[in-house]
Amino acid sequence: MLQLKKIYKWVNNGNHRIFLLKDIHLDVNEGEFISIMGPSGSGKSTLLNVIGMLDGFDEGEYHFSGTSVHQLKEKQRASLYKQYIGFVFQAYHLIDELTVYENIETPLLYQNIKGSERKAMVADILDRFNIVAKKDLFPAQLSGGQQQLVGIARALIAKPKLLLADEPTGNLNSKQGEEIMELFRQLNKEGMTIIQVTHSEKNAAYGNRIVNLLDGMISNA
User: Fold this and answer.
1) How remote is the C-alpha of 195 from its chain's centroid?
2) Where are the domains of the chain?
3) Are 181 and 206 in contact (CB under 8 A)?
4) Over its length of 221 residues, how does the chain's per-residue pLDDT go in tens digits?
5) Are 24 and 145 within 8 A, CB to CB?
């Protein structure tokens, strides 16, 4: 499904280069469930953002479903992202001016899905996440855990081929966290490819492969 070859990403500090990612090689097959682990500052979120086409990189090649991402213009990358990828952000990234309902509906607007169908899909996922009562609230009126659930619902609504999740259960209580991981496991069984960043050994075990990062490098492939 995707292939990263010799990916380097750095920032310049005076005459020094500080490497955020260094010589990353990673192949991800369709239907895999991968957990990325490593200490804080090891480049986990940066790697996820590169895979999710939200961040560029300085050197290397990135192939996604036969498309050379490194050769695309920003607009083309954004279009590919909207078509195939769902992203659960650690900091939620909900749109403050939109209600819970509107936030969750947003990805469907990019896919030209009819209004009646959108309505049914949003209703279904609100129900699945037990947040029907919150649908007319704005993000600022929700707790961190509720915002996280809305973020996950939004990432899943369009049934993406690839789900990227950055510490998806970080703000949830243990019961909610377990339910989300079980949901991910089920979606993976149904064919969704999932890559999650996690500090939790327990959550990592839901995946079928663990990729360890250290100082921007993969310490096992």
Assistant:
1) 7
2) 31-56+73-218
3) yes
4) 999 999 999 999 888 999 999 999 999 999 999 999 999 999 999 999 999 999 999 999 999 998 999 999 988 998 888 889 999 988 888 999 999 999 999 989 888 788 999 999 999 999 989 899 999 999 999 988 899 899 999 999 988 999 999 998 888 888 889 989 999 999 999 999 999 999 999 999 999 999 999 999 998 64
5) no
CATH number of 31-56+73-218: 3.40.50.300
